[in-house]
Amino acid sequence: MFGNPGRDIVSFAENKKNDIGLIVIGSRGHSRAGEMLLGSVSYTVVHKSKKPVMIIK
């Protein structure tokens, strides 16, 4: 796999061909200060998506 998983998830969810009403994603953080509570993928999804996002811890 290659690419940016967070942006790929957002792109897929916001594609009008897909009937996505809510993004559910897990939380896991090990890196930078801004991502201490969220992993980098969930951080990207929460901040880039126009769809509602539910974080499961």
Largest sheet, described in full? 2 strands, parallel
Number of helices: 2
The CATH architecture term is 3-Layer(aba) Sandwich
CATH fold field value: Rossmann fold
The first-to-last residue Cα distance is 25 Å
> How would you name the CATH homologous superfamily?
HUPs
CATH classification class: Alpha Beta
Strand content: 5-15%
Tell me the strand order in the biggest sheet: 1-2
Q: In terms of per-residue confidence, which ranges show pLDDT below 50 for 5 or more consecutive residues? A: none
What does this structure look like?
This is UspA domain-containing protein. Residues 3-57 form the UspA domain. Helices cover 33% and strands 14% of the residues. It contains 2 helices and 2 strands; from the N terminus they run H-E-H-E. The protein has helices spanning 5-14, 40-48; strands spanning 23-26, 53-56. Strands 1-2 form a two-stranded parallel ribbon. It is globular and about 35 Å long.
Which helices and strands, and how do they pair?
Layout: H1 5-14, E1 23-26, H2 40-48, E2 53-56
